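Hi U.,

Before I forget, here's the chain from the pilot set. I'm dumping it here mostly so it's searchable later in email.
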Amino acid sequence: MSARALAPGLLGDNSADLAQERRRENRMMLALTLPALIVAGVLMLVPVGWLFSLSFVGADGGLSVENYSRIWTDGAYVAIFVTTFKIALLVTALCVGLGYPVAYVMAILPERWSRLVMLLVLVPFWTSLLVRTYAWLVLLQRRGVVNTLLQDLGLISKPLMLVNNMTGTVIGMVHVMLPFLILPLFASLRSIDCNLTRAAANLGAGPTRAFFTVFLPLTMPGLVAGTMMVFVMCLGFYITPALLGGGKVNMIAQRIEQSVSLFPTWGPAAALAVVLLVLTAGFLGASWLIVRRLKVEV
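Structure:
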């Protein structure tokens, strides 16, 4: 029997052995990670289940859906949800506009300069969120650095209201959330083969057309992942709106804190938290489907 005739049979036996070895390795890895998965699952599901049960406790201590009905019928709750989503969308759009050029420059720079820019992006993580927020409070106040500089340059005649309103809240949140968009987007940009844009240029595409038809679609999985991460995290922001908003900007997290102190039970706060959790899970699921579809198309 020739070697050509033996090859398919030998390859088939080898494939079966490899598949069996892969299944055995998967079972071993599952057995090794199962205790950690059980502990992580308990730590995640028990608090959520406890929160879900509290959301159905009414003011009289009995089971009730009054906490959920209050959310949809009370105009104050509706206004808080509108404000929260408006700020989250605005901060996300600003982070995309500012973060995409930074990530793009990091991707095309030489390795040494790219690491330096990455270091600058990561510097905010070295200080606490509270310290950074108080720093913006000092910079943006009426006699702060920003207003003083603008007046000295003759650009404004009187101080701008940059704090204790939505403007200060958005500025502070953009500063906090910008690295969360840049990091996943940079990872996506670094994995793109630059020869693709050169091939597009050789085929007659200009720089703008090559960017929008070749480069930008390849970055969409990282861009969508970073965008959804920023948007979802903005929905639960508390410290920055509480300090830079000056009590004039109420978001869902602040309302949850106020509900705990205003109502005799934790039911209203738990119902708000459950609604926020469901919305967050919905946005994460949508982003996962979008990223999966984009990867298939790419």
